[in-house]
Design a protein that fits this description.
It is built from one helix and nine strands; from the N terminus they run βββββββββα. By secondary structure, it is mainly β.
Length: 158
Amino acid sequence: MSPTSGLKVRQHQRHEIELPIEFVVCEEHRNQVRFSASSGAVDHHTVRGRSIDVSPGGIGIVCRQFIPRMCEGSLRLLNPMPIGTSSNGMPILEVAFEHRVKVRRIWMDGREPTYLVGLAFADPETVDPNIGDRISKLAKRISAETRRSSPRSGEPDD
């Protein structure tokens, strides 16, 4: 019998999904984790990025700010269709899904400061086991709505 390595293998099937996200550092970690205004963060405790995949165990994201391992916060998947515009001209996006998460892995991707972050759902028992399918369907619906609402190239605007 071969010895086990202790390495935990992936337990869930991942679904590729690309939606805008926000990661908001939880109250308990705000003294240790604070983002600089020059980093492009939304504020001192919120960063934006995009999701890359989702499973019942967690979600993978890409962002431009370093988030330390074991940091906890709320992850918000956002509907990319703006519901309005803020006073500073930024689009206001509606939250499609929100859950408490914990950073399990982080690594830099490429030369620019772009980080791939592996997040685990803090309370996976409360996550729908079909979350990947549900969010994939949501992303497809949003993509179809986006295509319908944007003018096609070569056609005049109304």
